[in-house]
Amino acid sequence: MAQFARSPITAVLGPTNTGKTHLAVERMCGHSSGMMGFPLRLLAREVYDRVVAIKGPEQVALITGEEKIVPPQARYFLCTAESMPIDIGLQAGGAPNGLKDYAFVALDEAQLGADPERGHIFTDRLLRARGREETMILGSASIARVVKSLVPDIDIIGRPRFSTLSYAGAKKLSRLPKRSAIVAFSAEEVYAVAEMLRRFRGGAAVVMGALSPRTRNAQVQMFLNGDVDYLVATDAIGMGLNLDVAHVAFASLRKFDGHRTRRLTVSEMAQIAGRAGRHHKDGTFGSLGGEDGDATFTPEEIEAIEAHRFPPIEQLFWRDGTPRTDRLDQLIADLEKRPDRPQLRAAPQAVDLAVLKRLAEDPLVIERVKAKRQVERLWAASSLPDFQKLGADHHARVVNRIWRFLSEESLGSGGGYIPRDWFAQNLARLDSVQGDIDTLSGRIAAARTWSYIAHRPDWLEYPAEMAERTRALEEKLSDALHAALTQRFVDRRTSVLLRDIGQNASNLPVVVDPDGSVCVDGETIGKLDGFRFSVDPATRHQDRKMLLAAAERRLGKVLRVKADELVGAADTDFALMDEAGQAPGIAWGETPVATLLAGPALLAPEIRLDRAILDLDQDVQKQVATRLTAWFDAQKQKHLLPLVKMNDSALDPEVPAVVRAVFAQLGDAGGVIARIDLDSALGHLDKDQRHLLRKAGIDIGVLDIYHPGLLKPGAARWRSALMAVRIGKPCLPLPGPGLTLIPAGEKFEQMGARIAGFRGFGEQMLRIDMAERMARTAHEAIARNEAFTHVSPQIVSLGLSEPSFLQLMRLAGFRPVEAPAPAPVAVTEGVEAVEGAEPTEGAEGAEAPVVNAANWVFKGRQKPRPERGQQARGPRRADKQGDGQPSEGKRGGSKPAGGKSGGAESGGERQQRDRAGAPAHRSSPAPVNNAFAGLADLLGRND
């Protein structure tokens, strides 16, 4: 907008009910065009309706962040202070009539320049917004000195109050006169007072700043029509809303200002009290309750309010209103620049700047934001108001998502718009009239965000369509909120506060600190851990219920926001809780959100939501449960796909029944099972049927049957957790990722290692795939006529001790030898063949070499047989799945085979034992010196 240094500038200052706004409206309507800025959307809408009645709707425009009504021929603009188009003329409002400046400009409630949160906006408008013919600044007389210092050529005019405002003392709620407004500073107390009035005085209208104009107007109309005689409001009524109020009663004189709970200043008291007595009707003010509570005025405060004498404002908050946008760092520097005039002070970091600085650290922002156009677009996105008041961190995530869509414009792909479907989906989530007053208010606040976006013409491809949809949604929610307020005002939880309304605690704000501590007026009453709220045991018993009720009402909004974040979280934000000793569950970040309970199948556990989430609305519970189920299904596909396929094969009618039985047993065991447990089922399979198992990726080893993919760390964790879920036990400790050999450890460590895919060999446990590999290596050594001992490179690299190595060899079906053996004979029927590889050509029937350097012979893994009551000597543990042979060192005086097989029986003793005969289930002696026959047995070719 053009500025004229010599244009007439007038400051009309004075207390409330001096007709300042009315005068400005009259002056504007006397000019060819004009614009007025207001502190509230509600006030802008109220004046808009008045000007429409004077000039007609085709000449009047309304511009707020969430609402724009701009006729093509509009010449009079009513705006919120933030939405005043002072730099680019009418284009910000979308009017195509080419109007570049305004004959008249006015700023209402200019004393808000001293407000830490929004003050820099009003200061900027005071310094830069100018009309071509006339400029008018409206506000409290307390800013006269600072305004004169900042604008030396301004003409200051004082306005006296039309009526008298006097103190009426403290009154109980039952003694309040009709046409009274009760002012409270928290939603809880507003609801409590309104409910009390409903019970004893037939009801009350409710006005809060968070209400939409439609809801507010409907509530006020009830009061103006005489349907109710009382109005309960927050301090929003102090900002110029014109109501027919005779008396203003303060329920408290303390409020939470976003940082702390403090007592109102005298100027704030007077601003609110001045709503009583409109035009020439005198008004009164006082407190609610007794003379000794928080709502009690001091004599000095009463005198100052009645005489309209307030401390002068010495400084206004300021931030550069025209920052440079050539570079991102330059923009941030300008916004953080300090003023060079003593009447101005740097504004605290606002939400828009906090969001901008967070986004500036994003690598994608650094990559894309190079030119001036991209910097301006990023700043515009960061300026999206935080209507829900959820803090910079949460708001930055919302803005970041929106900016990523807008930034695609810089990629030259024809993008740069928010996707229509994504926008519509977010609106659809809010399209519900179910819930209590807080729920509906929260949805309206969220809808305001989308209304703001819809009124940005360069953010959406079809802004008019989306603006209409957001308008319809806000009207629908507003009507539902008005109905809820009219019917009840509060829900059952608020009734707890009514008993103690005089104790000055039910209206105290609830604050959640970063560490989760929940405070009411600085007193910690509990802690919010994730979704769980626990009461501080030190809270006094008589205050417990009242403080808890207040906390729960306010925490409900926080918990709903957290639930929405959970539903929208990425898969990487969730994790399996499987710490040793704890019940399996699902965590979102550090917050437990569900436990896993036994279900109909191993891979189908019940996902039981945390009890704190179960306290939320059913639709929220359903959304959370759906999201967790989707994540669990994705984890199955990622980590347990072989196990999923096993279960599918077990139910596939195309698979032979005997093979399905194997799949079923293996799947039920979690994809890893000792071979001895499947001997019976494997015995019914022919060669082709065993090939189906191998084709499915299953290794049929001499000791274990498993799928290699299920030995990976992620799969092992999930298998262990699901096995614990099935039996209703805590999780077991698991070996670290990447380990192949571990100490046996204690009982629970052994159990966890076994589930993870390890097998015990004495004091050590070896991963089963490595155990099978060593068995194959032994066969290859025999085939090459080479010795295989605990000092062989393969064994040394594993770190396997000599006793563990010997036990591995015995369990795998090998026996030590010292001398050349006679010609080979066929494998006996009682010996199990081993699956997994092809036999060496010419193995069967080959003649034994004259000199045999091999120190082992393969006799096959024997079937289990009754224990003989023999006990092994030494500290090594007997394996329950052993081959039934005596432990090494049982026969005294024997020497290690070849000098390296410590503890093995001597060659003579071994030959004597062989000649003594095989166990009863053998039909013929096992081959002794045929290296290839043993390998063929291992490879499963002697079926």
Characterize the structure shown:
The protein is built from 30 helices and 36 strands. With 943 residues, the chain is α/β, with parallel strands linked by helices. Helix 14 runs antiparallel to helix 15, helix 20 (641-650) packs antiparallel against helix 21 and helix 26 runs antiparallel to helix 30 (931-938). It is elongated, with a radius of gyration of 41 Å.
Which features would summarize this protein structure in a list?
alpha/beta; 943 residues; six-stranded parallel beta sheet; 30 helices; eight-stranded mixed beta sheet
The helix content is 25-40%
What kind of assembly state do the chains in view correspond to?
A: single chain
Largest sheet: 8 strands, mixed
Low-confidence stretches: 1-6, 88-97, 490-506, 823-852, 866-943
Cα(first) to Cα(last) distance is 95 Å
Mean pLDDT: 80
> What is the C-alpha radius of gyration, as a whole number of Å?
41 Å
In percent terms, what proportion of residues is strand?
15-25%
- Please count the beta strands (DSSP E, at least 2 residues each): 36
The total of helices stands at: 30
3D shape? elongated
How are the strands of the biggest sheet laid out side by side? 4-3-5-2-6-7-1-8
